[in-house]
Amino acid sequence: MKSPWLAILGLLLASCGSSRPTGTNLGAPPESFLSYPAHSSEGIVNASAKYAYPADQKREFLTNILDDVQIIPVELRVNLRGEGADEAQIKLTPDSMNLRLYLQNGVALSNVDIDEFMGKLAKKPAIEIRNKKFNGGLLKAADTSGYLYFAIHPKDKFQVEGDKLIYTADGVTRSLDIDRSLLAFDVIIDDHPRPFYVGIRP
């Protein structure tokens, strides 16, 4: 059965291709826009995600990496539940997950290797970021967890303001809530990629 998130995502991306007025500040999306559920499941695989707000970043990484290097950190937790979970052999690694983070305006950000930005950070934060990254592995009942790091791109169209992004293109400016983004990734189950769509608002 097609995931309902595919239909939602299709509408989200379709809206980005619509014509836009120029020289206009569209402001923030309406408050009636709810964040996506921060849990998703497919068979015995369960996933949840959480955005690390600036205050959380300082606690987790000893710095605000959103301000420092324009990286959005998202904590991912994946586990197995239900019949057959003990016998299942499902392995998850960042390289095989087709990771994307869709912002409110449909822009898709890519997960980046930490070595791409580690050199711009002080030593202690760099160690914390490396130690807490999502490495994946063989899934089990206990959580497989860690942080994914998404690079803001293109940088010339974005400005960071607290836990919001200000996006400007073609003379149009929008304020985007990071915690209303959608994390997308694939899990190989029974030799087939199964898409997962998870909100990141705790």
Could you provide a short overview of the structure?
This protein starts with a helix and ends with a strand. The protein is an alpha+beta fold and 202 residues long. The strands form 4 sheets. The protein has a 4-stranded mixed sheet with strand order 1-12-11-10, with no helix packed on it. A 4-stranded antiparallel sheet has the order 2-3-4-9. The chain has a 4-stranded antiparallel sheet with strand order 7-6-13-14, with no helix packed on it.
Descriptors:
four-stranded mixed beta sheet; 202 residues; 4 helices; 17% helix; four-stranded antiparallel beta sheet; alpha+beta
Tell me about this structure.
The chain is α+β, with helices and mostly antiparallel strands. Helices cover 17% and strands 37% of the residues. It has one domain (4-16, 51-199). The chain has four helices and 14 strands. The chain has a four-stranded mixed β-sheet with strand order 1-12-11-10, with no helix packed on it. The longest helix is centred in the N-terminal third of the chain and has 13 residues, at 4-16.
